[in-house]
Amino acid sequence: MVEVNQIINLASHCLHLCNSSNIEETAFYYSMNADTFVTNNSESWKKRFEENNVKCKIKKPNEVVPSERIVVDGSSLGKDLKKWEGKWKNQNKAVCIYNIDELSPLMLKDLVNSHDKMLLSVNKMRMFSDKNLDKEIDCDLDPEIVESIVKRELKSILVSLLLSKPMCGTELVKILYEKFKVLVSPGMLYPALRELEKGGLLKYDYQFKNKIYSIQKKEQAKLLLNNHVKVSSLVSQFLVSD
Q1: Rounded to an integer, what distance in angstroms lies between the CA atom of residue 171 and that of residue 155?
Q2: Of 130, 158, 192, which residue sits at a domain end?
Q3: In this predicted model, what pLDDT tens digit does every residue of 134-169 receive, in sequence order?
Q4: Number of domains in the chain
Q5: For residue 90, what is the enclosing H or E element?
Q6: 3-state secondary structure 170-206
Q7: In the chain, beta strands by DSSP E
Q8: pLDDT at res. 238
Q9: pLDDT tens digits, residue range 111-140?
């Protein structure tokens, strides 16, 4: 895991996106170097802290003072999420942890934009970035529609990206987020890559224990994408009203 001090020094208001498999571990890790753990589920976390010998004060959101270095159980904030996140922009240091599986695309976009830095750690995947990634999609587009299309067309998008250069899974996730503001989970990415591999379009080699994916049949991949673009264009023309 990225060092706590490195993240804290880089940002006063940091967002850490996890999933159910590592959210507890992440909370323990940050809490060992923080003044206060903030949650609306204080009894549950108090028991877990005691069992794992984590010595950190636990407070409810309304008990926090600005001088504290806090770790926030974002998933417990409920409907008051925006109110508290707005307050913690002025906090000495704050790391806000959320379960990405519980966030809608719109909530995810708002959270990324309201923090100085973002860290994504899902299973073995890591991504650390500024909130102000290059904007490559129209800000007026409905994020739920964008996410739906990206996930539906994921295999074609992956083929297009890998035609430009070989990449590992983490690089693909980062580029997908930079271009579309959509976070594709490992549970969706790797099955799509395996399917393309079984179809003979992709191959992979190991580089420093990472799988690096590349296109095996470039002409076939280009033909597939060209045909896909023609069909998509035809459908788009039909859908656009005068």
Answers
A1: 15
A2: 130
A3: 444 444 556 677 777 888 889 989 999 999 999 988
A4: 2
A5: none
A6: HHHHHHHHHHHCCCCCHHHHHHHHHHHHHCCCEEEEE
A7: 13-18, 36-38, 57-59, 69-73, 93-99, 117-122, 125-130, 202-207, 210-215
A8: 52
A9: 888 888 888 777 555 666 654 444 444 445
